[in-house]
Design goal:
CATH class of the largest domain: Mainly Alpha
Number of strands: 15
Number of helices: 13
Radius of gyration: 24 Å
CATH architecture of the largest domain: Orthogonal Bundle
Strand order of the largest sheet: 4-5-9-6-7-8
Distance between the termini: 33 Å
Largest sheet: 6 strands, antiparallel
Strand content: 5-15%
Helix content: 25-40%
Order of helices and strands: HHEEEHHHHHHEEHHEEEEEEHEHEHEE
Structural class: alpha+beta
Shape: globular
Number of domains: 3
Length: about 550
C-alpha cells in the first residue's frame, strides 16, 4: 500500500535536559537529541520566571539559531522571539503590509516568498497554520535572517565608507527586520522606535541571557556548534567525522564514532548548554547520549551498548554510564550498577538513551575497543507488545509484532480500513475499537474524529525519515504506526487542553486506546495527537 502524504518542513533541535524535543510521529525515536547545542545560555536563563526563557521555547530558539547557513547566538534568537511575540507562536499583529504572525513576526509577503505557501497553509495537516507552528516558523525565520545577512555583508563590502560598514551584523539584522533594508543603507539614521526601543530591548535580553553584545557580534557561515562568542578550550567538531556532536572534545568525538560504527546508531547527542548540575558533562563537551527507541528492541540495544561501554571503558575514556535508571561509575573502588532516584519520565530516567560521561583527558584509544562479551546487566524490564507470531495480548500492552509480519510490511488485506478516513488502515481489533470510540466522540462533538495518520507502510516510513528533520520520525521499521496500532488525530485532539483532548484523556482507555507516557504534556517529545491501541483487559 502506498499512501499520499505531505512532508513536514520542520525540525527540533534538542533537543531534546534543558532542551525539549518535539516530535511528529516519532514515537520510537522518543527523546532523541539531534544536533549540536549552543554554549550561549547562562545557567539561570531558562525557566518559568518572568525574566527567563520558557523551557518549552528552548527548542524553538535553538532551531532558529542553528537552521540557517549562518550561526546565530541562541541568546540573541531568544531575545528576538521575546521582543517580537513574547514566545507566543500564535501572535498576530496588523500593519500597513497586511500584518505579521508567529514567533518572529513575519509578514505575509515574506512568509509566502521564503516558505512557498501562504500563511494560512497547514502542510503537515496538524490543525495549526505552519507560520504559527513554532518549529516550522523558526526554521524559515532562520532562512529569512540568512537572506538579510547576505545582503548586509554585500552592502558592507560594496560601501566600505557607509555608516553600516562599522555596525555589527546583529544590529543591522534587527534594523532590516524592524524598519526595512533601506534603513540599513541609511544607518545610523534609523527610526526612533527602532533605535530607542526595539534594539535596546533585544540587546538587554541578549546580554542577560547569554552575555551577547549585539553591537559587537558579526556572524559567518560556521560549522554548526561554533558559537560566535564561544570561549574556552572547547574543540570544534572534527572535520571528516560522520557525527555532528557540536563542540565536544576530540576523544569524545572519536569514542562516539566508534560506538556509532559498532551498533549502527547515528542518533547521538553531544554538546548542549546546561546548568550547574552538569557542567562537567554536556556543557564541557565531555558527554554524549546514545539514543535508542522506547520499545523492547531499544531496551535490548541499550543493554548491548551499556555492556560494550563497560567492557571498553578504558579504551573509550568513559568515566561513567547511566542507563535505565542506574549508574555504573568506574571511579568507584568497586564499580557496579547502582540504582538512581525516579526522576519522573523515560528520558529523565535514561530509558531512551545511554548517557556516557568521559574523562577530561583522553588517555585511552577508542580504536582498541572490542565487541562481544559484557557484564551481567541486572536491569529487569517487562517485555511489552507480544511475540513474533501472535498479536499482542489484550490488556495494556504496547504495540509490537503480530501475525508474523515485519513492521510496515503488513498486507492491506490483513488490515481494516477506517471508514471515514480515506486510505487509512488499522489492525482489525484496533479499527473496531476506534469505530466504537468514534461513535461516542461523535455523540459528544457532532463530528468524526480527524485521522491524519494510521498505518504507515515501510515506504512511507522511509519517506518521512528522509524528509523530516533529524529526530522527528522513527527509524524505518521501528514506528508503532508500522504495526497498524497507532493513530495521529486532528479535530482538536491534537492540541493539549482542548475539550476534545480532555475527552480523550477521560474516555480513550474505555476503548483500549492509550496516550503513551512519552507523548503526554510536559514530556520532552510530547505529542497531543499520537495515541496507541493497547487493548482491553478481559
Amino acid at each position: 500500500m502506498k499512501k499520499a502524504f505531505v512532508g513536514l518542513v520542520a525540525f527540533v533541535l534538542i533537543i531534546p535536559v534543558v532542551v525539549v524535543i518535539l516530535f511528529s510521529g516519532g514515537e520510537c525515536a522518543g527523546g532523541a537529541e539531534p544536533g549540536p547545542r549552543d554554549p550561549g545560555f547562562k545557567d539561570d536563563a531558562i525557566g518559568n520566571g518572568p525574566d527567563q526563557i520558557p523551557t518549552k521555547a528552548v527548542p524553538w530558539v535553538e532551531k532558529l539559531a542553528n537552521s540557517g547557513e549562518y550561526r546565530y547566538p541562541v541568546a540573541f534568537a531568544a531575545a528576538d522571539m521575546f521582543a517580537e511575540s513574547g514566545f507566543d507562536p500564535g501572535t498576530t499583529a496588523g500593519d500597513s503590509n497586511g500584518g505579521t504572525r508567529g514567533l518572529t513576526q513575519i509578514n505575509r509577503h515574506e512568509w509566502k516568498r521564503i516558505y512557498g505557501h501562504d500563511w494560512n497553509a497547514d502542510e503537515n495537516d496538524n490543525g495549526t497554520p505552519d507560520i504559527q507552528d513554532p518549529l516550522i516558523h523558526a526554521e524559515y525565520a532562520a532562512k529569512l535572517w540568512d537572506e538579510n545577512i547576505d545582503k548586509i555583508h554585500k552592502y558592507k563590502e560594496d560601501h566600505p565608507d557607509s555608516g553600516a560598514a562599522d555596525a555589527s551584523d546583529l544590529e543591522l539584522l534587527l534594523v532590516a527586520h524592524n524598519a526595512g533594508f533601506s534603513r540599513v543603507e541609511s544607518y545610523p539614521e534609523i527610526p526612533a522606535s527602532t533605535k530607542d526601543t526595539y534594539i535596546p530591548r533585544i540587546a538587554k535580553k541578549s546580554k542577560a541571557w547569554g552575555g551577547v553584545d549585539i553591537k559587537k557580534t558579526d556572524v559567518g557561515a560556521q560549522p554548526k556548534g561554533a558559537d560566535p562568542q564561544a570561549g574556552g578550550d572547547i574543540s570544534l567538531p572534527q572535520k571528516g567525522t560522520d557525527l555532528d556532536l557540536g563542540p565536544v572534545k576530540p576523544h569524545v568525538q572519536e569514542a562516539a564514532e566508534t560506538i556509532s560504527e559498532e551498533f549502527d546508531i547515528t542518533n547521538i547527542g553531544g554538546y548542549r548548554a546546561g546548568n550547574s548540575r552538569d557542567k562537567e558533562g554536556h556543557p564541557s563537551g565531555l558527554a554524549i547520549d546514545v539514543m535508542v527507541p522506547l520499545d523492547d528492541e531499544g531496551k535490548q540495544l541499550g543493554d548491548e551498548v551499556a555492556k560494550y561501554v563497560i567492557d571498553n571503558h578504558e579504551a573509550l575514556n568513559v568515566k561513567y554510564v547511566i542507563w535505565y535508571q542506574r549508574i555504573y561509575n568506574f571511579e568507584k573502588d568497586d564499580p557496579s550498577w547502582r540504582d538512581m532516584e525516579d526522576r519522573g519520565g523515560d528520558t529523565a530516567n535514561h530509558r531512551d538513551h545511554n548517557h556516557l560521561s568521559f574523562n577530561a583527558d583522553g588517555d585511552g584509544d577508542p580504536g582498541e575497543a572490542k565487541g562481544g562479551g559484557g557484564v551481567d546487566m541486572p536491569i529487569d524490564c517487562p517485555k511489552d507488545g507480544g511475540g513474533d507470531d501472535d498479536a499482542p495480548k489484550k490488556g495494556k500492552n504496547k504495540p509490537g509484532p503480530w501475525g508474523g509480519h515485519d513492521n510496515g510490511r503488513i498486507p492491506t488485506d490483513e488490515l481494516k480500513p477506517i471508514p471515514w478516513a480515506s486510505d487509512e488502515f488499522l489492525r482489525g481489533d484496533a479499527a473496531d475499537a476506534l469505530m466504537k470510540m468514534n461513535n461516542s466522540f461523535k455523540d459528544e462533538f457532532g463530528t468524526d474524529m480527524g485521522i491524519t495518520d494510521a498505518y504507515r507502510d515501510y515506504e512511507e516510513q522511509e519517506h518521512l525519515f528522509e524528509t523530516k528533520p533529524p529526530g522527528m520520525a522513527a527509524t524505518p521499521g521501528k514506528s508503532n504506526h508500522g504495526w497498524a496500532l497507532a493513530v495521529d488525530y486532528g479535530s482538536g485532539i491534537n492540541r493539549f487542553g482542548t475539550p476534545q483532548h480532555e475527552w480523550m484523556k477521560k474516555n480513550a482507555g474505555k476503548f483500549g486506546w492509550q496516550h503513551p507516557d512519552w507523548a503526554k504534556q510536559g514530556q520532552r517529545n510530547a505529542e497531543a495527537w499520537h495515541w496507541e491501541y493497547y487493548g482491553l483487559d478481559k
